[in-house]
Write a structure and sequence with these properties.
The protein is α/β, with parallel strands linked by helices. The chain has 2 domains: about 220 residues, 3-Layer(bba) Sandwich (FAD/NAD(P)-binding domain), CATH 3.50.50.60; about 140 residues, FAD/NAD(P)-binding domain. Helix content is about 20%, strand content about 30%. The chain contains 8 helices and 23 strands. The strands form 6 sheets. Strands 1, 2, 5, 6, 7, 8 and 22 form a 7-stranded mixed sheet that branches. Strands 10-18-11-12-13 form a 5-stranded parallel sheet, covered by helices on one side. It has a 4-stranded antiparallel sheet with strand order 15-14-16-17. Helix 1 runs parallel beside helix 3 and helix 4 packs across helix 5.
Length: about 375
């Protein structure tokens, strides 16, 4: 069930982006009594994790040897429940302006593409790398198969069980999904333009072991054409009509792979999964008047504040020397950001750093420990 729409127009903090880093920012801000509104272009929380790989295993979240994107999103939503954040989903922030309240304190006013106006004492940009669009399979007529035989993301892995699959690509997503799907698939073949892969070394090692064992097929080459087998013909792919004809039933899908300038190898399968990466568009934040570096927002590493006081950027959207684009890094940035946000929201209060393990005050906020008794 999607979260209810916002109940008011003014908040302590507005977080642009409801991915994992934006969600964890709610927790860190909530510990400091900072209430949040999260605004996201997607119609659900979770960002890239929930939209592009909800069932893909993630291995580098502390304390979780393995967790999927959707499981991580669900856990974060459970963790921030005590702070009652509000959400505005399926909506894009298109601009912000500065103003002041009756006492002269700085306020930020944001306007959305739907005409909504919301104000806050601080803005936190946690929009990831921006708006992601998967790079399409570079062959003619591919668009006609998208969403039924050709896929750029796995949202329900069970639909690929006992199916003959072809995975195209050589990066982390292609290798990880090949390893995640092959045991339940009827067959799985990886198509990549060269023998070398660009994925994590341990994943590449596991892939080669599966290939050597005959569990995963490998074809070195580039996809050239695709079509559904015409049952009325001699068995060749009907490429001219295949894209337009959304025929019902399990007609075999044929993928032609050019293995050298004069040789075509045809693979028969049920589905093609193409993982050629994502095209990133920074979106409206690029026009926010913030200092930028190669399309990313420049921040300091003490407070993760941007070039505009009271505007912060955490997660993949920011840039600083040594930046690592990891969810783990975004969590760290959110914790430091929250300390400075407190000073903007409560300029007359002293910030006292506390640990959730020992602070009865924080445990009361979380509804845990002896503080609940």
């Amino acid at each position: 069930m999607p979260p209810p729409p916002p109940s008011k127009s003014h908040y302590d903090a507005i977080i642009i982006g409801a991915g994992p880093v934006g969600l964890f920012a709610v927790f860190e801000l909530g510990l400091n009594d900072v209430g949040c509104l999260l605004i996201d272009t997607l119609d659900k929380v979770g960002g890239q994790c929930a939209e592009l790989y909800p069932e893909k295993p993630i291995y580098d979240i502390p304390a979780f040897p393995v967790i999927t994107g959707q499981e991580l999103t669900d856990a974060l939503m459970e963790q921030i429940k005590p702070f009652n954040p509000e959400f505005l989903l399926g909506t894009t922030v298109i601009e912000y302006t500065k103003s002041t309240d009756e006492e002269g304190a700085l306020l930020y006013q944001v306007r959305t593409d739907e005409g909504g106006v919301y104000t806050a004492k601080v803005l936190v940009v946690a929009s990831g790398g921006g708006n992601f669009t998967p790079k399409r399979l570079p062959i003619a007529d591919a668009a006609g198969y998208e969403g039924r035989r050709l896929w750029y993301a796995v949202r329900q892995r069970k639909q690929f069980a006992k199916q003959h699959l072809v995975v195209c690509g050589g990066g982390d997503s292609a290798v990880d999904w090949a390893l995640a799907l092959y045991e339940d698939a009827a067959s799985l073949t990886v198509v990549h333009r060269r023998p070398e892969f660009r994925a994590a070394p341990d994943s590449v090692r596991k892939l080669h072991l599966a290939i050597e064992a005959g569990s995963i097929g490998l074809v070195i080459g580039a996809p050239h054409a695709m079509g559904e087998r015409d049952s009325q013909s001699d068995g060749t792919a009907n490429k001219a009509e295949g894209a337009a004809n959304k025929a019902e039933g399990p007609a075999p899908l044929l993928l032609d792979v050019k293995t050298d300038p004069t040789t075509i190898e045809t693979l028969t399968c049920d589905h093609v999964l193409a993982f050629y990466g994502l095209t990133m568009k920074p979106g409206p934040v690029a026009d926010f008047g913030l200092a930028m570096h190669d399309g990313l927002i420049v921040v300091d590493t003490e407070k993760f504040e941007t070039s505009v006081p009271g505007v912060f950027a955490i997660g993949d959207i920011n840039h600083y020397p040594g930046k690592l684009k990891l969810i783990l890094s975004g969590f760290h940035e959110a914790a430091l950001m929250a300390q400075q946000v407190f000073r903007y929201v409560y300029p007359d209060r002293r910030l006292r750093f506390q640990y959730t393990t020992s602070s009865s005050q924080l445990q009361r906020k979380l509804g845990v420990g002896k503080a609940t008794g």
